[in-house]
Amino acid sequence: MDDTGRLISVAVPEEGKRRSMLVDVAARMLREKPLGTFGAVIVVILLLTGILADILAPYHYNETDPRLHLAPPSAEHLLGNDNIGRDVLSRVIYGARISVIVGLSATSLSAIIAATIGTLSGYLGGKFDLVMQRFVDGWMCFPGLVLLIAAISLIGPGIWQIVIVLGILYGIGSSRIVRGAVIGIKENVYVDAAIAAGCSTPQIVRKHILPNIMAPLIVVFSTQVPAVIMTEASLSFLGFGIPPPYPSWGGMLSGAGRTHMERAWWMMVWPGVALSVVVYGINMFGDALRDLLDPRLRGGLGRYSGARGRARKKHIAAAGQTGGTPQG
After folding, report:
1. Fold assignment, 30-293
2. 3-class SS at 5?
3. Residue spans per domain, the chain
């Protein structure tokens, strides 16, 4: 407000808006989504474990000691040893690194592919959209596991082969979600105004389409990470995933784990527990993030969220009880 009593609007920097949005999302998750907060803690622990595996693991993942053949849990080896004397705890910790690399890398590649196909197909439309969507239909008709096994059989097992194949598989299927969001966005007035102003298609896509599909892309990313981790574990369990001696959780559940599970239960239990907890935590975090970011799940109040949303709801309820019309 200036000296004459007039209100002066203050422009908020874009970085300040983004920081405020992140703080608002984090505060709402702590307040409204306890399971989502628990899942976020699991995600942070998984990331730190994967990054600091060399420091946290008491032994190297392939360090063997024949004297500790199928040794049970002890003070020196908290989760026991496997059939060739390797420390199970160290292999579980290093397995977290494999899950982090595959989960984040494959899902990032999937998001890039989905954004590219979905944006071009939804914005351009016409024959390009028709041909592209028929290709996506045909791709989605094939069972995913069969496609994965066939692709890995052709190019060979390995961590980066798994990342590329999973990224392509999930990216093409997820392009449908992005395409639907783009079709809804391109009908807005600001897109028509940009076209009338002479903006080129790349400019419109970069400045108007991509920023407005980030929320669905984030939701797709957060919900695909556990699916990618489970798929990698399934492939490793079947022998088409990460080759030994790298300690994938799925690979630890297969082979020697199944052979000795009656005598050495710890070889099967701890990798299975780690995989279950991680997938559960990421799913809870992804579901909470979807509820907080998807405007269709905010009770029709759109941008009114958090404290502003509750104040707006109380204002509407009070106006309804008194028979008045809410203002502002």
Report:
1. MetI-like fold (1.10.3720)
2. coil
3. 30-293
Q: List, in sequence order, every beta strand (DSSP E) within the chain.
A: none
Dump the DSSP string for 93-153.
Answer: HHHHHHHHHHHHHHHHHHHHHHHHHHHHHHHH-HHHHHHHHHHHHHHHHS-HHHHHHHHHH
Dump pLDDT digits (tens) for 291-306.
877 655 554 333 334 4
- Chain segment 151-186, per-residue pLDDT in tens: 888 888 888 889 999 999 999 989 998 998 898 888
Place of tokens 């899902």: 107
Cβ–Cβ < 8 Å for 43, 283:
no
Q: Which of 180, 172, 190 is nearest to 135 (CA)?
A: 172
| DSSP-derived secondary structure letter, 11 | P
Angle at the Cα of 136 (from 135 to 137), degrees rounded to 5? 90
Q: What is the pTM of this model?
A: 0.79
Measured distance CA(286)–CA(127) in Å, rounded: 35
- The answer to whether 164 and 173 have CB atoms below 8 angstroms apart is no
Rounded Cα gap, residues 64 and 87, in angstroms:
8
DSSP state letter for 207: I
Spatial separation of the C-alpha atoms in residues 326 and 328, rounded to whole Å:
7
User: For 239-305, where are the alpha helices, taking DSSP H only?
Assistant: 249-253, 256-259, 266-293
CB of 212 closer than 8 Å to CB of 185: yes
The sign of the dihedral angle between the CA atoms of 56, 61, 63, 66 is positive
CA pseudo-torsion sign 188, 189, 192, 194: negative
Q: Kindly report the backbone phi and psi dihedral angles of residue 87, in degrees, each rounded to the nearest multiple of 5, phi listed first.
A: -75, 120
* Burial category of 108 from C-beta neighbours within 10 Å (exposed 0-12, middle 13-18, buried 19 and up): middle
Place of tokens 């969220």: 305
Q: Are 236 and 246 spatial neighbours (Cβ–Cβ below 8 Å)?
A: no
- 197 φ, ψ (degrees, to nearest 5): -80, -5
